[in-house]
Design a protein that fits this description.
The structure holds three protein chains of three kinds. By secondary structure, chain B is α+β, with helices and mostly antiparallel strands. Chain B folds into three domains: about 160 residues, Aldehyde Oxidoreductase, domain 4; about 190 residues, Aldehyde Oxidoreductase, domain 3, CATH 3.90.1170; about 325 residues, Aldehyde Oxidoreductase, domain 4. Helix content of chain B is about 25%, strand content about 25%. Chain B has 19 helices and 31 strands. Helix content of chain C is about 35%, strand content about 25%. Chain C has twelve helices and 14 strands. Classes of the chains: A alpha+beta, B alpha+beta, C alpha+beta. Chains in contact: A-B, A-C, B-C. Chains A and B meet through helix 2, helix 3, helix 4, helix 5 and helix 6 of A and helix 1 and helix 17 of B.
Chain lengths: ~170, ~800, ~290
């Protein structure tokens, strides 16, 4: 009765089809079935934000999403977003500002920050802090992370790559 | 002779050391291409899950695991007794902590579990999920034993003794006494006294503890992929406990997802996982899940400190009298022990100040809770909060401005080197210069005006100051003299490759703090090549010189000095080589920007890559009898002092909502003297991160236990780690007093933030609440505690 | 921390979900956003044999104004409520509360109906539903019934939902033009479950507060409506003395339990603080009516 189920989803632009156990969460699916190790599992109960991925253009916790529930969805991970260049400005800003240390939380933070800046490139420091509060970073003091996101928001507003949602 | 085009950087090369260059090795991390242990997959790899004791203290009467063996995917089910045949027990004591005791501990519980979370049965299966499924099929029959949970009654006669062979629950006791303390206190104009409490907290690295052990029975070699700070230490321990020659053990630490001291220890789980791989002859992976992390990762900081300070009427400090009690779990942690934190508390209290008298006692007691041990700051946050808390109490008692009282008592910058009253040796500190720098950064007068004006409107803001000292760059005094095989020296191997790339291998690893970057900066400057011609390798015991690793804020100061020395020698070798090849006197040559330069004419003569090519492929062109040496290894151990102390000051500005007890962190300032700053970009954010861990400790984080010794908040949702929303902007400035114990001059910087932040915030809260005549001295300072202080009826 | 094995079925109708619930009894659980359920499964706190995925049920979607009501489909996600212009226009209470629901990534997946059905006593939506006089539409696919939110929450994680019923929608009566709302919440960290929270509603007519709703969360097993405090404020101008009378009434009608970080007595104290602050933001400032 816990038979495997066939799922079909588009991950980073590639269609993939797998027979999986229903209990497999999306984070494990990406890591174990597809070898996409850039999505990190920090708590597996939806608190730390390290496992954040993009499903149908919205950030979600991959540990709180069953892979079978992503059937038919468009999933994007840090690997895909890096290859497409979609996060290049944020990644550069994180590096320039040293907004990461161990890097374990970084993929989740980048995707979360990008979601904010797509909707609100004008977000101020308080708004940025509020928005990324679902993503724990234990190494930085968050200060540099906020700096980096603020900088990219300014760049995107001034023409670079502003692509507003809605 | 090869003439090359002038290298653009050849004439004027700005040094890399001192510049805020970003980390070349971090691009992979922002692109999701790091390699953490859980990312590594090996052929025939299996996964282990541990059945853990649900009780704080219980005898194991019977284990029935038959049903588990039949479940899908299960490879093996092993209990503590079986595992003890492969892995010897271990004892977490150090001989220089005289009188310290701890019983032998096994990789998994044998007969008895002594804390909730101790591993009792291992299930090895094809997947972690299958291993967890099988755990549910195992029946353990327990006899629950009384648990020792409170440290204050742990030594009382009625309390059960956890290890009867030891006769009591005392792990370690120590006294420091400069003499004459009672007389000084009796004669002093003013004596202030207060008790400070510190809740247990834990490190919560985002990447959990992770081990992938791969024992190859054919060649009896063990390879361990480990998320760890001290690979050589672990290799030695695995070798000795499993009976494998150390030469046949290799420990690999690639990307480490946060460590903070939590990953410098040797956990029972590590030994169990490695022993299972030895037993099964195949790779076994253990990645702690978050719930088991909370009950197995080391905790820290459960202290209660009674402090007294004697002063003259005009605010001159006469002496400190300290009594620290700390509870450390049922076994002292192996191999660094659980007594170092308390030991540092009593070494460090009163440390920034000039005072002739000092007395301190330390009691370290066993409890049936998770083991405690070194976590970022190790005793400093406690000592700093006690010292700075009681200094503020004295200031309030005497009616002296807190900044002024500190100014009167801080050790003078020109008084070093010297001894502190507790006996610590201090090389060179800069309290006065840091204070001056702080006053440039922070407009105290404006903050005080703002405070008074808002106070009139019922808004309560406070300003808190914390001066700190931090021990860094330890010598052998820390562990080696106590008999632990933990290297205090570190080595670096630097070599010129045939393509002109300079390769550097170091025993100090990268945990994200930027070790590899600062090493590359040092190599670049000292050899004379651009930074992009440097490659750094760390985290592999088979390929790096033996070293201590990353802890006690030693990476830059110890590892960096070894890199510097090796690089300088390589440059000398290259110059000698070039001189021979070019037939020029060596004094005429220097290396800069990757080229050998004729200093007489100021022109580049050849690229160092050409030296690499000649040495490797055309030795026939070299004079007979000349052999270029392009690989250099140098070691460095800091032997001038037990530790090289740093100092700094922090200020916290807070607002306390006196109706809700909510503390809002408005701003935080840091002035830090970590000696020579190699890379301000990296050190600043490392300091900020450390500050935020301190802010977590003072406001949010605590491992809450019930009376049965069961952890009540062991999940990421219930244990409150600081999030971005509650954290302030943090301004950092530096004063640089290079240590003379090395040529690099760098001291450590990784922990001072954590050391000072709790004291600064505690003092700021108490400053805000001065009109209410209450003081909060129990950390974490929660809204509940603030409200109980302000509204006594809530405390009933 | 891996979930135990279970079977998984998607359904496209309330009737199909209900039939599976009847067939599998206690072994079956509904899953929509799964933002609470999946964490509890990972911890193996519950071990259902079957998860019924209801996200594909068309009739449970959407946010609309119909027949004098604002109807929020049970499958509307928190983020849909947060961003909805209809909600902002007609029921700003929900717009005020939405940012307090966890964090963005959770709000993108968790559902409005799921939160109400789970009935966490420290969650925002149940209290908002009570404060805004919502009615819950419950259905087993054959029979549909409507239950006032005030009557729905029975005890800690206990609701009036029958084993084979689903919440299909939440219906909010469209407030009159004098109706005003306020929302305030204390949490240790932003986005955490509330220590104490308060949803407020009331008509402000000619300087007087009429028909107030004072609904707390985080202070008991269910959202708690403070009826005596409402009575103390009803018809008055919410001047300080009246407000203090209302606060004094809370002691008689809230009996909070302590949680990990906050004692019962402190929660009661905080409930009073929130009432004072909440009323301040509920009533218009000088010069407004």
């Amino acid at each position: 009765m816990t038979d495997k189920i066939l799922v079909n989803m588009t991950v980073n632009g590639m269609v993939c089809e797998r027979w999986i156990e229903p209990r497999l969460h999306l984070g494990d699916f990406l890591r174990e079935e597809l070898g996409l190790k850039g999505t990190h599992l920090g708590c597996e109960h939806g608190v730390c934000g390290a496992c954040t991925v993009v499903v149908d253009d919205e950030i979600v916790r991959s540990c709180l999403t069953l892979a079978v529930q992503a059937d038919g969805a468009m999933v994007e991970t840090i690997e895909g977003k890096s290859e497409s260049g979609a996060l290049r400005d944020l990644q550069d800003a994180f590096l320039e500002r040293n907004a990461l240390q161990c890097g374990f939380c970084t993929a989740g933070l980048l995707l979360t920050a990008d979601a904010l800046l797509q909707a609100e490139p004008e977000a101020d420091r308080a708004r940025i802090r509020d928005h990324i509060s679902g993503n724990y970073c234990r190494c930085t003091g968050y200060h540099a992370v906020v700096d980096a996101i603020e900088t990219v928001g300014r760049q995107r507003r001034s023409g670079g790559r502003g692509h507003r949602h809605e | 002779m090869n003439k090359i085009a002038p290298h653009p950087a050849a004439t004027t090369v700005e040094p890399f050391v001192g510049r805020g260059v970003s980390r070349p090795n971090a691009r992979r991390l922002v692109e999701g291409r790091g390699t953490y242990v859980d990312d590594v997959e090996l052929p025939r790899m299996v996964h282990v899950a541990y059945l853990r004791s649900p009780h704080a203290h219980a005898r194991i009467l019977r284990i029935d695991a038959a049903a588990a063996l039949d479940l899908p995917g299960v490879v093996a089910v092993v209990d503590g007794r079986q595992l003890a045949e492969t892995c010897a027990p271990f004892v977490g004591t150090l001989s220089h902590l005289a009188g310290m005791r701890s019983p032998p501990q096994h990789a998994m519980a044998v007969d008895r579990a002594c804390w909730q979370g101790e591993a009792v049965v291992a299930v090895v299966a094809q997947t972690r999920a299958e291993a967890e499924d099988a755990l549910q099929a195992i029946q353990v029959e327990w006899e629950v034993l009384p648990a020792v949970t409170r440290m204050d009654s742990a030594l009382e006669p009625g309390t059960p003794v956890i290890h009867p062979d030891l006769g009591s629950n005392l792990c370690f006791h120590r006294e420091i006494d400069s003499g004459g303390v009672d007389a000084v206190f009796a004669a002093a104009d003013v004596v202030v006294e207060e008790t400070y409490e510190f809740g247990r907290h834990t490190g919560v690295t985002l990447e959990p503890r992770s081990v992938l052990a791969d024992f190859n029975p054919a060649e009896r070699r063990l390879t361990v992929h480990h998320s760890h700070q001290a690979p050589h230490m672990m290799g030695d321990l695995y070798a000795r406990l499993m009976g494998i020659p150390e030469a046949d053990v290799r420990v690999l630490c690639k990307d480490v997802g946060g460590s903070f001291g939590l990953k410098v220890h040797a956990y029972a789980d590590d030994f169990a996982t490695v022993a299972l791989s030895v037993l099964l002859g195949r790779p076994v992976k253990f990645v702690a899940d978050r719930l088991e992390s909370f009950v197995t990762d080391i905790h820290a900081r459960e202290h209660r400190v009674k402090a007294r300070l004697a002063l003259t009427r005009d605010g001159r400090f006469l002496g400190f009298d300290i009594a620290d009690l700390t509870g450390v779990g049922p076994y002292s942690m192996y191999p660094r022990t659980s007594a170092v934190e308390g030991n540092q508390v009593i070494n460090l209290c009163g440390g920034p100040y000039d005072h002739p008298h000092y007395r301190a006692t330390l009691d370290v007691v066993f409890q049936n809770k998770v083991q405690t041990s070194q976590y970022r700051g190790v005793g400093h946050p406690v000592a700093c909060a006690v010292t700075e808390g009681i200094v503020d109490l004295a200031a309030a008692t005497l009616g002296i401005d807190p900044l002024e009282l500190r100014r009167r008592n801080l050790m003078a910058d020109d008084s070093f080197p010297r001894k502190g009253a507790s006996g610590i040796l201090l090389e060179s500190l800069s309290h006065q210069r840091c204070l001056a720098r702080l006053e440039e950064m922070v407009d105290f007068a404006a903050l005080r005006r703002d405070q008074a004006e808002r106070r009139a409107r019922g808004i309560h803001r406070g300003i808190g100051i914390a001066v700190l000292i931090e021990l860094t760059n330890p010598g052998a005094a820390f562990y080696g003299t106590g008999g632990a095989r933990i290297a205090s020296q570190d080595g670096a191997t630097v070599r010129l490759d045939p393509t002109g790339i300079v390769h550097c291998a170091s025993g100090v690893g990268e945990q994200g703090q930027g070790t590899e970057t600062i090493f590359a900066q040092i190599v670049a400057d000292e050899v004379g090549v651009p930074m992009d011609r440097v490659r750094v390798l760390t985290g592999d015991t088979a390929a790096t010189p033996y070293g201590g690793g990353t802890w006690a804020s030693r990476g830059a100061g110890i590892g960096g000095e070894a890199v510097l020395q090796a690089s300088r020698q390589l440059r000398a070798n290259l110059l000698e080589f070039a001189a021979v090849h070019l037939e020029l006197p060596v004094e005429r040559l220097r290396i800069a920007g990757g080229a050998v330069i004729d200093t007489a004419e100021g022109v580049p003569l050849m690229d160092v890559a050409e030296l690499g090519r000649l040495a490797h492929f055309r030795p026939d062109l070299l004079p007979a009898g000349f052999q270029p040496e392009l690989v250099v290894t140098r070691h460095y151990a800091q032997r001038d002092y037990p530790f090289i102390f740093t100092n700094g000051i922090q200020v916290s500005h807070v607002e306390v909502d006196v109706e809700t007890g909510v503390v809002t962190l408005l701003k935080h300032w840091v002035v830090e003297d970590c000696g020579r700053v190699i890379n301000p970009l990296l050190v600043d954010e490392q300091i900020r991160g450390a500050v935020v861990q301190g802010l977590g400790g003072v406001l949010f984080e605590e491992c809450l236990y019930d009376e049965n010794g069961l952890l009540r908040n062991g999940s990421m949702a219930d244990y409150l780690v600081p999030m971005a929303g509650e954290m302030p902007d943090i301004e950092v400035a530096h004063v640089e007093t290079p240590t003379r114990s090395s040529e690099l001059g760098a001291k450590g910087a990784g922990e001072a933030g954590t050391a000072g932040a709790p004291a600064a915030v505690m003092n700021a809260i108490n400053d805000a609440l001065r009109p209410f005549a209450v003081r909060l001295t129990s950390q974490p300072i929660t809204p509940e505690k603030i409200l109980r202080a302000l509204h006594p009826h809530l405390a009933d | 921390m891996k979930a135990p094995p279970f079977a998984y079925r998607r359904v496209a109708s309330v009737a199909a979900a209900s039939a599976l619930l009847r067939e599998h009894g206690d072994g079956a659980r509904l899953i929509a956003g799964g933002q609470t359920l999946l964490a509890t499964l990972g911890m193996r706190l519950s071990e259902p044999s079957l998860l019924i995925d209801i996200r594909g049920i068309a009739e449970m979607q959407g946010i609309a104004v119909t027949g004098g009501h604002l109807r929020i489909g049970a499958l509307a996600r928190h983020v849909d409520v947060e961003r909805s212009a209809l909600v902002a226009q007609h029921l700003p209470l929900l717009s005020l509360a939405a940012p307090h629901v966890a964090h963005a990534a959770i709000r993108n997946r968790g559902t409005f109906g799921g939160s109400i059905a789970f009935a966490d006593p420290a969650a925002e939506w149940p209290a908002c539903a009570v404060a805004a006089d919502a009615a819950l539409v419950l259905s087993d696919g054959t029979t549909s019934r409507t239950v006032e939110a005030a009557d729905f929450f029975l005890g800690l994680y206990q609701t009036d939902l029958r084993p084979d019923e689903l919440i299909t929608a939440v219906r909010f009566p469209l407030p009159g033009r004098h109706r005003r709302f306020a929302f305030t919440e204390l949490a240790r960290r932003h986005g955490d479950y509330a220590t104490v929270g308060l949803a407020l509603a009331g008509d402000w007519v000619e300087g007087r507060l009429h028909d107030p709703r004072i609904v707390y969360f985080g202070v008991g097993g269910t959202p708690v409506r403070a009826v005596a405090a409402e009575a103390a404020l009803a018809g008055g101008r919410a001047e300080p003395e009246t407000l203090e009378r209302a606060v004094a009434e809370l002691g008689g009608e809230l009996s909070p339990s302590g949680d990990l970080y906050t004692s019962a007595a402190t929660k009661l104290h905080l409930a009073g603080v929130l009432l004072r602050r909440g009323i301040q933001s509920l009533i218009p400032g000088e010069g407004q009516t």
